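#lab-general

N.A. 3:47 PM
ok so I finally got the sequence cleaned up, no stray characters, all 198 residues accounted for. can someone with queue access submit it? mine expired

B.Y. 3:52 PM
send it over

N.A. 3:53 PM
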Amino acid sequence: MPFDNTGSMRRCEVFCELHERGKRRSMVKYGEHRMVKAIWQAGSILLMAVVLALGVNQLRPGRLPLVADWSTEARLQLSDGETLAVSPEEAEALFFSQTAVILDARSPDLFAEGHIQGALNLPPEELEKGLDTFLAEIPPESMIITYCDGETCNLSKELALALLERGYRNARVLVNGWTVWQERGLPTEIGSPFREQN
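B.Y. 4:20 PM
back already:
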């Protein structure tokens, strides 16, 4: 009797197909398990980093507040509640009435590219070494407007605070001054800093 192996081959094909399906299932399950494990590990690392950062912040002498108002108004508010900010409208009125000294806190290169008409340049690198000499001819009761460029630029604030420390109680900051001044179409000029032209 001849041997009929078609039945065995068919059984082998079915078994092999089931076996292959099983492999695929276990590979998918294994792959899903790896993904879950990776997500869990990433979450754990993130949590440890946050806890470590909060702990270090609490231990450092000048710790940062976890919740704070970082608005321009809040950054320019003095401890007595008074603000250093001057509105663009007020700065414009003071400019046209010629009752304010305007100080540009940007670098001499940026100042030379363009600045508020009549402004004097006092960049931060010259702040400490030349401020007293620079201010010798400006009476302490003068209204002084400092400016730089950009909402987050602190150069004008630093300059205004240095002026306040030296008794110039009317020092104010025109926030984002150079951009605001140009947008309003107010008088500008180009050229080297006034002090260098003498």
